[in-house]
Design brief:
Layout (H helix, E strand, L loop, with lengths): L8 H19 L6 H8 L3 H4 L6 H17 L9 H18 L1 H8 L1 H6 L2 H27 L9 H17 L9 H16 L9
Helix pairs in contact: 1-2, 1-4, 1-6, 4-8, 5-6, 5-8, 5-9, 8-9, 9-10
C-alpha cells in the first residue's frame, strides 16, 4: 500500500472538501460516506478526523468551498445590465457543468434537508445574493427599456434562472467541442424572450 503524502492541515482540509464535492457530483449525497471519502483521497477514515472534528464539519467546509466558487461568478463590475446577466449566465453554466457537485448543492432540494444547519444557512445566503444580483440587473434593464415590462420582475427572474439551469443539462454542453457556440445560441434565445415585444434579435 502506498504511504499517503502528508499535507499541511489547510491543504488537506481543502482536498477533503473537494473530494466530497466530487463524490456528490458523481454518485449523489448518499454515496458520501467517510469510507468513500477516505478512499477518494487515499487516506484512512481516521485521518479525516485529524483535520475535522466531525462529519458535519466536513460538510460545512465543503459548502464553504462551493460557495466561494459560486460567489466568484458574482464578483465583477459591469455597468450595463444585459452584459452583466450574460456574464453571470455563462459563468454559472461553465462552473456547474464542469463540477456537478456544485450543481447539486445549488439546485437540489435534498441539500437543504440533509446538510447541517450552518451549511444550509451558507447555501441560503448564496441563493439570496444570486437572486438579488439577477433581480437588480433585470430591474435596471426594464428601466432602460432593454427588457420587457409587461411581466413582473419576479417572473422574469424565475424565467432567467430556470433557463440557465436548463442549459447545464442541455445536450452538447457537457463536452468541450462547440460548447461556447451552443451556449451563445441558447442565450440569444433567452434574451430574445426577455426583450420588449417587437425588439429585433440582438446581433
Amino acid at each position: 500500500m502506498t504511504t499517503p503524502v502528508r499535507l499541511p492541515t489547510s491543504e488537506r482540509r481543502e482536498q477533503i472538501a473537494d473530494a466530497a464535492l466530487a463524490i456528490i457530483g458523481r454518485q449523489g449525497f448518499s454515496a458520501l460516506t467517510t469510507t468513500a471519502l477516505a478512499e477518494e483521497i487515499g487516506v484512512t477514515s481516521g485521518a479525516l478526523f485529524r483535520h475535522f472534528p466531525s462529519r458535519d464539519a466536513i460538510l460545512e467546509e465543503t459548502v464553504r468551498r462551493a460557495e466561494a466558487r459560486l460567489s466568484a461568478t458574482l464578483d465583477y463590475v459591469e455597468p450595463e445590465p444585459l452584459p452583466r446577466l450574460e456574464r453571470l449566465a455563462r459563468a454559472r453554466v461553465q462552473v456547474l457543468s464542469e463540477e456537478p457537485g456544485l450543481a447539486w448543492l445549488l439546485r437540489s432540494e435534498e441539500a437543504f434537508l440533509v446538510l447541517p444547519p450552518a451549511a444550509v444557512e451558507t447555501l441560503r445566503d448564496l441563493v439570496k445574493r444570486s437572486r438579488a444580483f439577477i433581480e437588480a440587473a433585470l430591474r435596471q434593464a426594464i428601466a432602460q427599456g432593454d427588457v420587457r415590462d409587461d411581466l413582473p420582475p419576479d417572473v422574469l427572474l424565475f424565467t432567467f434562472t430556470a433557463a440557465v439551469h436548463a442549459m447545464i443539462r442541455a445536450p452538447g454542453l457537457q463536452g468541450r467541442a462547440g460548447k461556447r457556440r451552443d451556449v451563445g445560441r441558447l442565450l440569444d434565445g433567452l434574451f430574445a424572450m426577455l426583450a420588449p415585444p417587437g425588439r429585433p434579435p440582438r446581433s
